[in-house]
Amino acid sequence: MEPWIEYTLPPELVAQEPLNNRTDARLMIVDRQRGELNHHHIRDLPRILQPGDRIVLNDTKVIPAQLRGERAKTGGRWQGLFLGTNDAGDWSLVCKTRGRLQPMEKVILHDRDGKPAVTLWLLEQIGDGEWLARPESELTPLELLDRLGRVPLPPYIRGGQMVDSDVQNYQTVFARTPGAVAAPTAGLHFTEDLLRAMEQSGVNFSAVTLHVGRGTFRPIDVEDVEEHPMHSEWGELTDVAAREINSSREANQRVIAVGTTVTRVLEAAAASSTEPKLAAWRGETDLFIRPPYEFGAVDALLTNFHFPRTTLLLLVQALGGTELIRAAYEEAIREEYRFYSYGDAMLIV
């Protein structure tokens, strides 16, 4: 049987803005034991979840990684996506422009008002569309991005064009650790009030970090899933979080991952451990979770709706079961759920 869940989504179901109140988003409960689908809202979580449940959040912070400017020698428009730095302090970027870029080419970065601000030298191409680059600036990368960068919205939201409200909307309220070039979107549904209400109802919380990279949303364009080159992302499970999660598991309490990113961290840590218990873990993971997969750390998952033929949807299928998740997506389209980053969610239990 094909691994893919294919579906046709009416364009109007692609959410272009978040709801005014994040907790008003709809929530589909996917009950694996009963094979049932039930409809609620995110605001209902304090009464849906059980006392003792442990919610695991991703505290990564989206950086303003999208850059714009012009090529000094041609005046042509240039766009870049900052991916990180190496030990020498050089930047890693994905570049987009007309024509062919050359090593040691100069790019003039613009500020958010479109005015020339900083010179960036493209040093060399390093594969997969990435370039090493070096800015002429004494500022740290984060300081420079805060001054020049834009929120790196996915192209299905207004063609990737940010508005001022995206600075807050495309960031979780518990974001702490800068490094992501895309939001861990399941976490966008939470507000401070909702977190307090959940805590008062007996829910426990832990945090991990996974810096969401550009490869997260890359479609699978090979027929054999095994041949898909899985992207790598940096993550961390601290000793404190590992002990909290182990304690919950020993007490037979559910560990609920908020998002596929949290799932990747916990399952990467579980896969690297020689014991049933989790231990502190940090580093790059290219773990590809797809059916069939035996989960070692996650009992339930809160997640948004994902594109077909993506590793994200395959992860969801691995936990929920392909046929039940297929039925859930068909139901979501029928009931006009809002899809993708600013859209609604499902909770697989």
If you had to describe this structure to a student in words, what would you say it looks like?
- The chain is of the alpha/beta class and 349 residues long.
- It has two domains: 234 residues, QueA-like, CATH 3.40.1780.10; 85 residues, Beta Barrel (Thrombin, subunit H).
- The strands form three sheets. A nine-stranded mixed β-sheet has the order 2-1-17-16-14-3-12-13-15.
Keywords:
17 strands; 8 helices; 349 residues; Thrombin, subunit H; alpha/beta; single chain; 2 domains; 6-stranded antiparallel β-barrel; 9-stranded mixed beta sheet; QueA-like
Give the full name of the CATH homologous superfamily of the largest domain. Answer: QueA-like
Order of helices and strands: EEHEEEEEEEEHHEHEEHEHEEHHE
- Whole-angstrom Rg: 21 Å
Q: Please tell me the total number of domains.
A: 2
Low-pLDDT regions? none
Average pLDDT, all residues? 93
Helical proportion, percent range: 10-25%
**β-sheet strand percentage:** 25-35%
| Gross CATH architecture of the largest domain | 3-Layer(aba) Sandwich
Largest sheet at a glance? 9 strands, mixed
Bulk shape = globular
List the helices and strands and how they pair.
Layout: E1 26-31, E2 36-41, H1 45-48, E3 54-58, E4 60-62, E5 66-71, E6 77-85, E7 91-97, E8 105-110, E9 116-127, E10 130-135, H2 141-148, H3 166-169, E11 177-180, H4 192-200, E12 204-210, E13 233-237, H5 239-250, E14 255-258, H6 260-272, E15 281-285, E16 300-304, H7 311-320, H8 322-334, E17 345-348
Parallel strand pairs: 1-17, 3-12, 3-14, 4-11, 14-16
Antiparallel strand pairs: 1-2, 5-6, 5-8, 6-7, 7-10, 8-9, 9-10, 12-13, 13-15, 16-17
Helix pairs in contact: 7-8
